Amino acid sequence: MADTKITLHKGDLPAALKFPNGVAIDSETLGLNPHRDRLCLIQLSAGDGTAHLVQFDGDDYSAPRLKALLTDPGIPKIFHFARFDVAVIEKYLGVETAQIYCTKIASKLVRTYTDRHGLKDLTSELLGIELSKQQQSSDWGAEKLSDSQLAYAASDVFHLHALKARLDEMLVRENRMAFAEAAFKFLPVRAKLDLAGFGEADLFAH
């Protein structure tokens, strides 16, 4: 994406920051176990080529402005694999994210011709953009993040607005928007179940 701007903030978002068209959100942690691996970074984008990255030191997760944004039901939050991010946010920030959209769930509902629903696959097929995953496994708990880490983190939110627009078209075309919306509404409950230890359980199985 040309003319991008990445801004790093310590502990919280700056005052008066607005996301009029919804906010794309992702997180970076020390691993994939929310009870063990702490939240290190939350990245946000308005879909306009800017990204705001909020870095946490592991002790202070107060972040009042970020929490107000996450819990605002009037602002759509666009994630890829929201299940994980929403659980991590609840674990460390102590808030339930409101108004969720998940591009991975949307993809699984409409891209039934493939089993490749990763962010890299989606941006490649639907937007013609190739993402680098070189920094996916790196030390996000470092006090000073490298330029490569910041660029990688921002790239995960730069394209979510455009992906949502494409996936919405497909959901409407295949008459599956109602399924998507119901799944999105259930995500906070799914996150709570994950945190409670029911991560692998299919509660609807016989």
Description:
With 206 residues, the chain is an alpha/beta fold. It has one domain (5-11, 20-195): Nucleotidyltransferase, domain 5 (2-Layer Sandwich), CATH 3.30.420. 40% of the residues lie in helices and 16% in strands. It has helices spanning 64-71, 82-93, 103-110, 119-127, 147-158, 160-173, 177-195, and strands at residues 5-10, 23-29, 39-45, 50-55, 77-79, 100-102. It has a six-stranded mixed sheet with strand order 1-4-3-2-5-6, with helices on both faces. A hairpin with a 4-residue loop joins strand 3 and strand 4. It starts with a strand and ends in an 11-residue tail after the last helix.
Write a brief caption for the model:
This protein is of the alpha/beta class.
